[in-house]
Amino acid sequence: MDSYINDKPFYEKSLSKLQNSNQSLGYSICIVDGKSSCEFNFGEKGFTQFGAVVEDHGVWGDASEYFATDKYAKMNAFLLMAFPALAKLANRNVRKIRSASV
Hints:
mainly alpha
């Protein structure tokens, strides 16, 4: 299960940071075979998140059915408590990347 969140300004600045670091994965994007695009395109342009997919869990008609399987990685108590703080840090980093000069 995934949601698509990369807006173009964030994507462009993240891509620049990723390329400058000589990495192919980071900042919520992935470069596959030198290609990357923030437009959802089923891979022909290198959709940025497909390169990070490591396992296919299939297609589910109802999210609750998937959540009930052993394929869904449930958060433990520590992660449930830490998630709000981690989300706040992640959002701060996204704002910082968006506002950075390329």
